Please model this.
Amino acid sequence: MCAELQSLMAQALTDCSFERALAENATGKRTRSNQNKTRQYLHALYDLDRGLPRFRALMAFWEMTAPSEQPLLALLYALGKDSLLAESAHLLIACPVGASLPAAIFSQKVSERHPGRYSEESVAAIGQRLASSWKQAGYLRGMYANRRTEVMPGYQVLAFAMLLAYLAGARGQFILQSPEVQALCLAESRIRELAFEASKRDLMRFQSAGAVITVSFETILNKLDIHDQG
Model:
């Protein structure tokens, strides 16, 4: 869905009319059936609701982030919407760079965590979808073997991940331990480096004194008209 989201954002961000962009087939689907399916998937994964603080944050970071890193923003947002995708994150975190992580492994883990819930055919399809989602975000490469690759997000992506955690109620050190930040597969030293860089760009405030970490987002929350998150 990342390519479709990029196409939609390119057309809709100018006036924030996502429904109009979808009605005009911004995603480029050839049939009405595929247009409707894509609309449903996009709403399910990304909300497309400007009234939601998380989506307002996605729009803001989408515009300031390079297209090459937008798939990471899409993945981070989808983690909070797709429970199976969120469950699969530990596979990526534990997989060494260069190792193989085929779709069958994703399917196997779904079966183990949800015995009897899905048919064998559905489990295989879910595994393919999960592998594809991580591949689109740059964590995997290859047609079949799906070799684990290293992602190197910039400070905007890290700030977005931390903001999502903040909006979900995490504070301090718990933001660094959040699913969104952990999904970036970064060493804590690198997380801190990027957080300090984001602070210099006024995307957040990050202070660290030993084990005590303070993270806040007053400037961007005010800019996005998001209140009562403290």
Summary: The beta strands are 140-141, 147-148, 205-209, 212-216.
